[in-house]
Amino acid sequence: MKRFAFPVLLIISILITAFSCSNTPKRSRKPVSSITIQPNKKSYVFGEKVSVNVKTKVKNGEIESIKLYYKNKLLKESKELNFTFEGAEINSLGNSNFRVETVKTDGLKNTRTKTVKTLSDTETKIYNYKIINTYPHSNDYYTQGLEYHNGFLYEGTGEYGKSRLEKVDLKTGNALRTYHMPDKYFGEGITILNDKIYQITYHAQKGFIYNLSDFALIDSFQFKSTEGWGLTNDGTNLIMSDGTHLLTWLNPSNFSVVKTVQVANKINTINFLNELEYIDGTIYANVYTTDLIVQIDPETGKILSQVNLKGIIDMYHNQKDKIDYLNGIAYDNKNKLLFITGKLWPKLFEIELIESK
Length: 357
Description:
- The protein is mainly β.
- It folds into two domains: 32-119, Sandwich (Immunoglobulin-like), CATH 2.60.40; 125-355, TolB, C-terminal domain (Neuraminidase, 6 Propeller).
- Helices cover 5% and strands 52% of the residues.
- The chain has one helix and 28 strands.
- The protein has an eight-stranded mixed β-sheet, with no helix packed on it. It has a five-stranded mixed β-sheet with strand order 2-8-7-4-5, with no helix packed on it. The chain has a four-stranded antiparallel β-sheet with strand order 10-11-12-13, with no helix packed on it.
- The protein is elongated and about 80 Å long.
- The relative contact order is 0.13.
């Protein structure tokens, strides 16, 4: 081969390759959107309005649509690569998302989300308490659920091998009926709805349904939350806590999730929500590991009020008694009486809440 032949062949090869590549369709690229919120803050206040700017970059092709959502509600649809939606109202406590879905004419699409944290706009009322009556309470009860119904207390207890359901005489503290759960279950919250007792478990993601009259086990159900803590009802649906700041409404017929609400005050979300009681249209909850009971708006999750029961048990037990945290709220709706107790407490208290001035 002559010396000049190799460079010529190399040039021809490069030209052929370049020509071939130029005729190969470019791979379609996903559009990429970004979300910017003004004002830019670590947390927002319930009801606050913000502006949401959406910018989209497109490598190739054309945009079919760009949709901006807040909590799955469509705020704006556009083909503009840079647009701003003014006056978006943040009306969900805790964490919620703005979401952008961008679709090209070739069907390729992409999604981006922006999470915002929202706190309550409501001032928390502070209550003190007054002890009206004291009643005996078994210091063997690791109280997880407490109900007052037709003159009797119903109590669900915890711990493996000791979990049970009890019907208790209020004045004497004596058990009138007992159901022992299998040792593999750690009992948690209970509630009474339509002549049935519902009881959830800690880690098993399972609940049980009993006849109110005789504690006969009539059914069981599964729930999706990783843990079960407190349980109450609003007359229609079950309401469950899972140890976080989330409350979940369950349909008692098929146990599907009806809705969820995140709970917060003006300072932060409130975690460790434990035993629950539905009282006059609001939810009262023990805050686990504290002496606090908080009152929650079931529509928004806002903390309406709180009471600190620190010291209530101090003069009613011996130093050698092994007591645990405050846990247990029951309400006599007919006579408007509020009862509270705690895990392994020897006393149950009827208290009156008095707003602090």
